[in-house]
Design goal:
Elements (H helix, E strand, L loop, with lengths): L1 E4 L2 H26 L12 H21 L3 E4 L3 E4 L4 E4 L3 E8 L1 H5 L11 E7 L4 E5 L6 H8 L5 E4 L5
Parallel strand pairs: 5-8
Antiparallel strand pairs: 1-2, 2-3, 3-4, 5-6, 6-7
Helix pairs in contact: 1-2
Length: about 160
């Protein structure tokens, strides 16, 4: 059995992509123009600002969804410690993995928000649990390795 809770290491790993994308962008702009005066122009900063705002939006949604949530995953069950409910694998309808198509196909993601993902666990009693990459950076692989006998489905939208 494995424990899942909000993990600030995963948050930092997600922010790592934001930092790499923004620094990489400015590095390429500098290499192309070879002039620091280019950074005084407002339109040079549009892409990094959009990137950072999208990351803040995703992180805020993920934090709100997973704040103070404690989940335990066993081979054939999910235990929601907050609601004090145990769901066996036969009570799970399916797990929808929401992640960018770029991550799924192995392509290079153009924006850092494409590195975030979450799992929506649909239960047969019409309830659902949402586990985000702030609980585990590779939440999709974690669930596939630790939860047996459950149907997994893909969705290419990583916004909550």
């Amino acid at each position: 059995m494995k424990q899942l809770k909000l993990n600030f290491l995963s948050l930092f790993l997600g922010l790592k992509w934001t930092l790499l994308f923004v620094l990489g962008y400015y590095f390429v702009v500098f290499l192309i123009f070879r002039d620091l005066n280019i950074f005084k122009m407002w339109y040079v900063h549009i892409w990094p600002i959009i990137n950072i705002l999208l990351d803040i939006y995703i992180i805020a949604g993920y934090l709100l969804e997973n704040f103070n949530k404690k989940i335990e995953i066993g081979n054939h069950y999910i235990l929601d410690k907050n609601a004090k409910k145990k769901y066996d694998s036969d009570e799970i309808l399916k797990i929808i993995i929401h992640k960018s198509e770029f991550l799924d196909s192995g392509k290079y993601a153009m924006m850092s928000f494409m590195h975030y993902k979450y799992a929506e666990i649909l239960l047969k009693d019409n309830n659902k649990l949402i586990l985000t990459s702030l609980m585990n950076a590779n939440i999709d692989e974690f669930l596939k390795e630790n939860l047996n006998g459950v149907y997994f489905q893909r969705d290419y939208n990583n916004f909550l």
